Amino acid sequence: MLINGVLLEGLEEVLDLLRRSDGRIIIEAPTGLRGVAVEVSRMLGSGRAMVSGRNTWGSCDITPTPGTSIIHIGHALPPNIEGILRMNGASIDRGGGLTIIKFKDSTIYLVPAYYEPDPEVEEALISKLRQAGAPKLIAYALPYKLYADHLAAVLGAQLFGPFTGCFFPLKVDGAGVVAGGLFYSMTVKLVNPNARVLAIDPHRITVEDIDREYRRFLAMKVSALIKAREAKRVAVILTGKPGQSMEMRVNDVLAYLRSNGIDSFLVYGDEVGPDLINELSVDAVINTACPRLGFDDLDRVNKPVINMGEIKYLRNGLDDYLSAKVLAWPGDAGK
């Protein structure tokens, strides 16, 4: 089904299922696709369906609500998030392009969404890629699948995707990443620091080597880790989102902190961002939730944010530090 220039795979099946069921319906979508969510709500009727105002950066952001069915538009389900969901009580069924996540009293339907390509944008991106030196691999975030399919076919590149901003399983020498902004490209670079990674943005019609942005991140991260090594009091961030919750590992984290003479307390939240972090009177923050918090917007926080895979660097040296550690999740809790 095509809505506002976005192709939604399996939506007809979901609408049919929900029309034959009772209960409230919430429609989630990331920034850029919320207008699509509004149109889907109109198809179901305003008496039952409502558009969520929550931030949904990925499938890990789903929050089951008792007696409610949720349509989550536009995100893939990577293996790491699937594992965490299962550990937190979810069952997962896959059929065609549709993924159904079931909790005891709530069902979530993941509906893939793809931007309909603009031929002029495709032509411009191909020209820019050839000028930059076309990569042998084209990877993509889910909504950009149709763009990536075309670019890879024309350039004769290998295609990989969809992938998410917290999980990229390949070791590569170079890649072009089709997505909005630099977030997904940075994920590929974190895992492959020596690779040439090009950010291919159909919205801005740009092709950008992200090496400078990666070096900027690395400088901020190493500076934060050095500062965190002096921490005497830290806050440990815990989320209730079942696709992110590492509650089963929190005791390991707290024990590691105690054994190293670091005072700590827990902060529980659905949505954690710079405003909350900056308000906390601590020397550093340990993030057990979405790893994005530990590498995105570092210039907006006033204290170090340490992800699970980086905890050991609070007391160990940084000689063996790898940027991929920022994505290690659930991490080694200092071991």
UniProtKB/TrEMBL annotation:
Keyword Chaperone recorded: no
MF annotations from Gene Ontology: 2-(3-amino-3-carboxypropyl)histidine synthase activity; 4 iron, 4 sulfur cluster binding; metal ion binding
Pfam families registered for this protein in UniProt: Diphthamide_syn (PF01866)
Reaction equations catalysed: L-histidyl-[translation elongation factor 2] + S-adenosyl-L-methionine = 2-[(3S)-amino-3-carboxypropyl]-L-histidyl-[translation elongation factor 2] + S-methyl-5'-thioadenosine + H(+)
EC identifiers of the protein: 2.5.1.108
Pathway membership: Protein modification; peptidyl-diphthamide biosynthesis
Cofactor: [4Fe-4S] cluster
Keywords annotated in UniProt: 4Fe-4S, Iron, Iron-sulfur, Metal-binding, S-adenosyl-L-methionine, Transferase
Gene Ontology biological-process entries: protein histidyl modification to diphthamide
Recorded superkingdom: Archaea
Family recorded in the similarity comment: Belongs to the DPH1/DPH2 family.
NCBIfam families on file: diphth2_R
Main function: Catalyzes the first step of diphthamide biosynthesis, i.e. the transfer of the 3-amino-3-carboxypropyl group from S-adenosyl-L-methionine (SAM) to the C2 position of the imidazole ring of the target histidine residue in translation elongation factor 2 (EF-2).
Name listed for the protein in its UniProt record: 2-(3-amino-3-carboxypropyl)histidine synthase
Species in which this protein is naturally found: Thermocladium modestius
Classification lineage: Archaea, Thermoproteota, Thermoprotei, Thermoproteales, Thermoproteaceae
